[in-house]
Amino acid sequence: MTTAPAHDPRDSGHRVVEAVWRDQSARIVAALTRHTGDFSWAEDLAQEALVEALDAWPRNGIPDNPGAWLMSVAKRRAIDGWRRRERMAQREPLFVTEALQAEASDPVPLEADPDRIDDDVLRLVFVACHPVLPAQARLALTLRTVAGLTSEQIARVLLMTVPALQQRIVRAKKSLAAASVPFEVPDRAERPARLASVLQVIYLLFTEGYSSAEGERPLRPDVAREAVRLGRQLETLMPGEPEISALIALMEFQSSRFAARIDAEGLPLTLEQQDRRRWDRSAISRGSAALRRVDAADRGLGYYGLQAAIAECHAVAPTFADTDWPRILRLYDALETLAPSAVVRLNRAVAVSMVDGPDAALALVSQLEPELTGFRPLVAVRAELLERLGRVDAATAEFLAAAELPGNAAETEVLRRRAAALRA
């Protein structure tokens, strides 16, 4: 008689540590930055706490409040660091009470921190999006600290190599330290200079929640909700900015589909497959209201406004067949003119396939191959177009090729199943 291999509790502990880090890292780094006044050191402290958790939790069990445990460890390490630097007199009063609490068996919950860490996350975004940094460095640093993404995930999003990305993050932290950037939301005069970067980071954060770059889960609703929350805070901070309202509209329309985006097995469903009765109509209403605020500004549709208008076309269509694809194509034409990119052209090609047929779209997709080499969505779109054209063998090969490219595990399973269905 054979027995199943024993479950290794260390594996479970490591998974919990990784999950807690994804969910809590932004708040922890933000709070530490406010206390220490040093963004780079705050991230190092948080990383040291993470390493300690990876060692301790698999051996001793998961603490009742993992986020508070990480915060307590990081703060104790900060105290040790100040002692070594002989700066304790300046900073110890901010930490000593919490450090003593960290020694207790029942630590103070992270959510109860009177320092309002939630508000600190937006400050952290503004710090990482300071104009002293190049555009891609702002994105890389914020995705690392706010979204909790790995270097590999960020490199994939920004189409960079991992070593180049890591060097950029190191240089960015050094630049912030050299410029003595304060941990605060900038005054009104300075906000517009950072707005575009802040919006881009919030949208990339939402995108990670809406369609996770890798891992077992195709969706991370908690991450998407955090992005929406940040968008709303930003709109309160800068009322009357239409692109903020547009981004909120876009996120509301897309998040309305969360309940319908995966099946009973946890695998993603296409727009055509989704049960629209499960779409969140209140989120759609909030999205439409946000778009009305954009229209009221009377400044036309910008980058996020055009995408929100496209998302609204999907949100208001009673069925997939009722989707206003000609309008979507016109909106993509405008978006390509305003902000040309290979990804925009890929999405436009999908709209072309619905208006002019898959053959016309296939030619457009082929033109994008040099720019989007190794990009899973491009290969998956090509596979779908070949399937619609009845080129079964070619479509099967493309679905299998897409499954081998980087992406989350649920998408990989769907791609493999689609290839298997064509071969059956």
UniProtKB/TrEMBL annotation:
Keywords: DNA-binding, Sigma factor, Transcription, Transcription regulation. It comes from the Bacteria. Residues 27-87 form the RNA polymerase sigma-70 region domain. The keyword Transcription applies. InterPro entries: DUF6596, RNA_pol_sigma-70_dom, RNA_pol_sigma70_ECF_CS, RNA_pol_sigma70_r2, RNA_pol_sigma70_r4_t2, RNA_pol_sigma_r2, RNA_pol_sigma_r3/r4-like, WH-like_DNA-bd_sf. Residues 127-176 form the RNA polymerase sigma factor 70 region 4 type domain. It holds the Pfam family DUF6596. This is RNA polymerase sigma factor.
